[in-house]
Amino acid sequence: MELSRKIAQIRKQKGLTQEQLADRANLTVRTIQRIESGASAPRAFTLKTLATALEVNFDELIDPAPADNQIQTDPDKDIDFLKTLCLSCFSYLIIPFIHFLIPLALLHKTGNLNREITAFARKIIRQQIFWKVITCLTLLLTLAYNLLSAYYIGKGYQVHYLWPFFIMYFLNGFLILQRWRQINGMRPDLQRLA
Question: From CA 142, how far away is CA 133, in angstroms rounded?
């Protein structure tokens, strides 16, 4: 329930008019009207004053965060968010070592996502972290191969470092595009859940 409706409901249950509540809370009637209509969001001090005037606990007055499975979101906004998150993964082309921090920041900045959207977003971020680790390991293995072949064989065949580098970069681009296609396929499922 919205805070404005909750305050109005508690006031009516206590049998108070807006004027009486305003007198008890030492606020103006206009302030009470604006809060109950949802035109203004009260500050914490005002909420504490209202809780005292209504004789309820401050924690009961403020709305608790809904459970993950009760969060109502717009499927189109969820799809747009996932697409933005997916596109932000292409930052590996510019910032190859810490690019996964950009989609991670987007996820933390966006609140109130349902469980399915959050899980999919985390899966995208984990994929980028795994890609980074595998890319580094591939380059280290290339170095080890080149050192061993130079030491034991002499002028044996050396693998150029750009080959595994470009292969891994193209692979990541392909993986990001695969996730993009998965996101487009999620739209009917999200609309069914809404």
Answer: 14
* pLDDT tens digits along 56-83: 887 777 755 444 444 446 778 888 889 9
Domain boundaries, given as residue ranges, for the chain:
3-61, 70-193
Which positions ≥6 away from 182 have C-beta within 8 Å? 120
Dig out the tokens for 142 from the structure. Answer: 């290339």
C-alpha span between 192 and 68 (Å, rounded):
17
Task: Please indicate, yes or no, whether the overall pTM of this predicted structure exceeds 0.70.
Answer: no
Contact yes or no for 81/110 (Cβ under 8 A): yes
- Measured distance CA(39)–CA(62) in Å, rounded: 17
CA distance 80 to 129: 22
Domain 3-61 in CATH 3.40.50.300: no
